[in-house]
Write a structure and sequence with these properties.
Elements: H1 37-52, H2 56-68, H3 87-101, H4 108-114, H5 118-121, E1 126-133, E2 139-147, H6 163-168
Antiparallel strand pairs: 1-2
């Protein structure tokens, strides 16, 4: 019996039940975090990379985040990063780091609009995993498309300004693509 459309479950933000003898999850109190330190560091790395390119401080942010996450630095101490990235490669690395670090925190929606990549991201189907047990007890993993989101037009990068605000000032122009 599948409980989610994707077949995936989230452990992030769940309580720590590793020491509990019970198999039942109970309520846990949560502090809702509006701004995370990791988000600030990634914003800084993104801005530095856009202005000056992949300098040492940009690499250091990614190293610090990966060290904090418990990732092994590897033999070369680069935490799996290419030490000779150009600006575009570093941009892609920062975007991926942000996608992983800020997962399920309602950041990606705004990120892909800010980066103007929503049309390509939303052009790909969202995939899930259907896991079935065969007759001999082995597991069979079947990747399946759950749905394909649609990003209709480039004007969706900017929301329309409220009509009442536009008519208050004759010099104010509506965002492109909106009437």
């Amino acid at each position: 019996m599948q409980q989610t459309k994707t077949g995936y479950y989230m452990r992030k933000f769940m309580g720590d039940f590793s020491t509990s003898n019970s198999t039942v999850y109970s309520n846990t109190l949560h502090d809702w975090v509006y701004i995370r330190y990791a988000g600030i560091l990634l914003d800084y790395a993104e801005a530095e990379n856009e202005v000056q390119g992949p300098l040492a401080q940009v690499y250091q942010v990614l190293y610090d985040l990966r060290q904090r996450a418990g990732i092994d630095p590897g033999d070369n101490g680069n935490y799996g990063l290419n030490p000779a990235m150009n600006q575009e490669q570093m941009r892609a690395a920062i975007h991926q780091e942000r996608r992983i670090e800020m997962a399920f925190e309602q950041e990606r929606y705004w990120d892909i609009r800010r980066w103007k990549t929503a049309d390509s991201v939303y052009g790909q189907p969202v995939q899930g995993m259907d896991i079935q047990r065969t007759g001999n007890g082995e597991l069979y993993y079947n990747v399946q498309n759950v749905f394909t989101p649609h990003f209709v037009a480039p004007q969706m990068y900017l929301y329309p300004l409220p009509y009442n605000e536009v008519v208050k000032n004759p010099a104010m122009k509506q965002n492109p693509g909106w009437k």
